[in-house]
Amino acid sequence: MRITTKFFGEIDISEKCLIHFDKGLPGFPEEKQFVLLSHGEGSPFVILQSTGNLEVAFILISPFTVMPHYEIQITDSVKQELKIQETEDVQVWSIVVLREPISESTVNLKAPVILNTKMNKAQQVILEKGDYSTRHPLVILQSNAEQGAGE
């Protein structure tokens, strides 16, 4: 399958890589099909790219990269909607907002993207518990960047 992306131009992807957001994303309810693209070798970032609209792309990072003790509890309803059965099938991502200067960039820790890698289903959820911000400073610690999502 060939798609046009915001950051990488036209690329070929496997349909097996498609991620389905049954509810879309907040602000983009019509965008229900995405793909995760590597930002580059060694980068802690990935791109969540809509397959239907090249302008809808988000930079993601593992929240554990910016906050090693980040904790979430996935509700039973989200587990059911995403068909989550095993913890090891779950990845947690946070949306990055780049700003000028780059030192003003932030990460949304309050509303992570939960991905069931086995079923390729995802949802952005708003955490009820935890004192997390939608604008947490983007500070990447090298040891955390090497850990990867969900570890």
From TrEMBL:
Protein's cellular compartments: Cytoplasm
Protein's GO biological process: bacterial-type flagellum assembly; regulation of translation
Keywords recorded for this protein, A-Z: Bacterial flagellum biogenesis, Cell projection, Chaperone, Cilium, Cytoplasm, Flagellum, Translation regulation
Keyword Transmembrane applies: no
A Pfam family: FliW
Known function: Acts as an anti-CsrA protein, binds CsrA and prevents it from repressing translation of its target genes, one of which is flagellin. Binds to flagellin and participates in the assembly of the flagellum.
Descriptive protein name: Flagellar assembly factor FliW
